[in-house]
């Protein structure tokens, strides 16, 4: 991502991402004693159990922090932009040394904490407990997940204001919403939704809305300025290029890092994974330090996530970023082509790999060019396979591309590339990987995306996704109008009943989970 001029600027930074999944177990759940020399063969669930028990940190919270930092991916010991390591992103840089503190607290070596996931999780728990002790949390308070809010804010690495509030709120949104995350080795770490009422303390007065500080360059974006020493005022060249980056970390952490005087890096815009929120940090008229050799003539857009983990690249992110890029192209006369809209790896003189092979350039450029007119709404979804052609094949290709499974050009011809993408998607969803898009695969494809709570009176794009998925799953037409009315409620209850779910007509995590599993 960033230009490489300092020793810790290697593969990415991390703190928190878009809303998704982690393991939530009742606070204080017993998991047995945790020996100091925790064996590496422990599963991730066991590692979280043991670390939570040993350091009296709510397991719910521990996993939520880890998920927000890395999506529970240790990235094989590679460091982040902030020189952070492992699932819990233990950091070692001039401004923050949680890696070294974890070594002192646990007795583990720095190398072990970097490379061994159970040790890294144990180190994260130890640091959180040390922060809790520093802030005076007693035993009763430590049992209440809501009391840990100031501790989580401090773990962000910037406990002074906006980034810390953004970080901590995201962790508590994970706890509120619940998730299910697949991790290395085929294990699944899950989170049951729960009601949270965090005690924000001094962070209660820090606003995230900031209506008076919206971007003047791109009105949908928030304006949170980077540290003045991390960019150059003015430009020496006309703006001719948009550069796509991946942060190698989280949205909140990226914002914090660009505000850090030690980072010596910045970008013009940062896009959040979960919902596509955009924050501008350097004015278009100024030169951000994001792509060595290309800074003078380009605008840099950072995307929350990691190059090697496609779960960060959501449809909301693609659409939001593409709208921003289209705006920039229109404003500055930049051609909407791959010569002028490039990845960091394509800027001459750079040695970075982002956005990497998981970035769906085909879909992104369709969105930027305004050519995304594929119809997804049908009265029935028929089986599609190799040799099929037409509008529903285009829909399959569009949906597969959106989810990061490369079906190639959306041309309405079901060939070998579309079949391979369908098989990969089916495998990822636990479906029979036959490459045939039948009822289950249609249901999983059409429902893929965020999982907001929907009920009678809800409206919008998420309701349309639900209605399409119900049409496929039930084998009957559900009107796709984006309005959750009585007919949609009946369809939801029929689906819930037929799948053994609580038939309350409310679409929550269980119903979304069944739909997205192709049930």
Automatic annotation (TrEMBL):
GO terms classed as biological process: cell wall organization; peptidoglycan catabolic process; peptidoglycan turnover
Keyword DNA-binding: no
SUPFAM superfamilies: Lysozyme-like, N-acetylmuramoyl-L-alanine amidase-like, PGBD-like
Signal peptide: 1-33
A Pfam family this chain is assigned to: Amidase_2
EC number(s) from the headed UniProt entry: 3.5.1.28
Record-linked Gene3D superfamilies: 1.10.530.10, Peptidoglycan recognition protein-like, PGBD-like superfamily/PGBD
SMART domains: Ami_2
Residue ranges constituting the N-acetylmuramoyl-L-alanine amidase domain according to the UniProt record: 228-356
Keyword Signal (UniProt): yes
Reactions that this protein is recorded to catalyse: Hydrolyzes the link between N-acetylmuramoyl residues and L-amino acid residues in certain cell-wall glycopeptides
GO MF assignments: N-acetylmuramoyl-L-alanine amidase activity
EC category: hydrolase
This protein's UniProt keywords: Cell wall biogenesis/degradation, Hydrolase, Signal
Stored InterPro entries: Amidase/PGRP_sf (IPR036505), Amidase_domain (IPR002502), Lysozyme-like_dom_sf (IPR023346), NAMLAA_amidase_2 (IPR051206), Peptidoglycan-bd-like (IPR002477), PGBD-like_sf (IPR036365), PGBDSf (IPR036366)
Sequence similarity: Belongs to the N-acetylmuramoyl-L-alanine amidase 2 family.
Protein name from the UniProt record: N-acetylmuramoyl-L-alanine amidase
Taxonomic source organism: Wenjunlia vitaminophila
Biological classification of the source: Bacteria, Bacillati, Actinomycetota, Actinomycetes, Kitasatosporales
């Amino acid at each position: 991502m960033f230009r490489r001029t300092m020793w810790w600027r290697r593969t990415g930074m991390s703190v928190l991402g878009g809303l998704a999944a982690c393991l939530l177990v009742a606070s204080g759940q017993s998991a047995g004693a945790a020996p100091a020399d925790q064996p590496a063969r422990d599963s991730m669930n066991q590692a979280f159990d043991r670390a939570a028990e040993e350091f009296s940190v709510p397991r719910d919270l521990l996993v939520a922090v880890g998920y927000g930092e890395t999506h529970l991916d240790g990235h094989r010991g590679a460091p982040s932009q902030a020189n952070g390591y492992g699932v819990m992103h233990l950091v070692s840089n001039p401004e923050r040394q949680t890696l070294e503190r974890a070594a002192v607290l646990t007795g583990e070596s720095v190398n072990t904490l970097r490379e061994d996931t159970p040790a890294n999780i144990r180190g994260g728990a130890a640091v959180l407990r040390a922060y809790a002790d520093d802030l005076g949390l007693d035993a009763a308070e430590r049992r209440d997940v809501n009391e840990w809010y100031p501790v989580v804010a401090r773990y962000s690495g910037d406990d002074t204001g906006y980034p810390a509030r953004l970080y901590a709120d995201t962790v508590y949104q994970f706890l509120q919403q619940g998730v299910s995350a697949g991790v290395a080795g085929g294990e699944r770490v899950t989170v049951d939704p729960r009601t949270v009422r965090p005690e924000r303390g001094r962070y209660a007065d820090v606003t995230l809305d900031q209506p008076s500080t919206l971007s003047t360059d791109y009105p949908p974006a928030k304006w949170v300025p980077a540290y003045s020493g991390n960019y150059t005022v003015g430009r020496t060249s006309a703006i001719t290029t948009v550069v796509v980056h991946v942060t190698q970390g989280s949205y909140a952490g990226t914002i914090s890092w660009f505000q850090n005087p030690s980072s010596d890096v910045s970008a013009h815009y940062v896009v959040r994974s979960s919902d596509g929120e955009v924050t501008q940090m350097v004015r278009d008229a100024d030169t951000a330090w994001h792509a060595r050799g290309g800074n003078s003539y380009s605008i840099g857009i950072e995307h929350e996530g990691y190059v090697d983990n496609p779960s960060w690249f959501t449809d909301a992110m693609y659409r939001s970023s593409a709208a921003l890029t289209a705006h920039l192209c229109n404003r500055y006369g930049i051609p909407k082509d791959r010569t002028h809209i490039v990845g960091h790896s394509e800027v001459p003189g750079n040695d970075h790999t982002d956005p990497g092979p998981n970035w769906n350039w085909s879909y992104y450029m369709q969105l930027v060019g305004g050519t995304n007119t594929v119809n997804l709404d049908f009265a029935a979804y028929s089986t599609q396979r190799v040799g099929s052609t037409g509008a529903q094949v285009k829909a399959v290709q569009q949906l597969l591309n959106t989810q990061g499974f490369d079906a190639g050009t959306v041309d309405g011809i079901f060939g070998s590339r579309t079949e391979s993408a369908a098989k990969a998607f089916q495998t990822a969803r636990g479906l029979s990987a036959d490459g045939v898009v039948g009822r289950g695969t249609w249901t999983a494809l059409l429902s893929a995306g965020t999982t907001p709570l929907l009920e009678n009176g809800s409206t919008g794009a998420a309701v349309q996704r639900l209605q399409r998925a119900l049409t496929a799953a039930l084998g009957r037409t559900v009107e796709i109008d984006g309005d959750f009315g009585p007919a949609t409620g009946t369809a939801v209850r029929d689906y819930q009943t037929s799948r053994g779910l609580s038939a309350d007509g409310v679409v929550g995590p269980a119903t979304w989970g069944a739909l997205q599993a192709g049930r």
